[in-house]
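Work through this:
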Amino acid sequence: MNFQIRDAITTNVHGQSAAEFKDIVEDAISRGEEHLLPGLGVFFEKWWQQSSPDEQDAFVQKLEKVFAH
């Protein structure tokens, strides 16, 4: 993913509330449009960088379970 996309998405959502972020994520998922995936990827990247190792481990364990089925 190119840094211009990261910067643009970061700028576009700067100052959003938790409710607004939830709406963005739910809207992107419900639309199912692949062009929205980079934005969700930027959200994930920012979350990952700010998460503790325990939070990261819990997340990847959940992914393991979700993708096992």
About this structure: The chain has one domain: 3-66. Residues 3-66 form one domain. The helical segments are 3-13, 18-31, 37-50, 53-66.
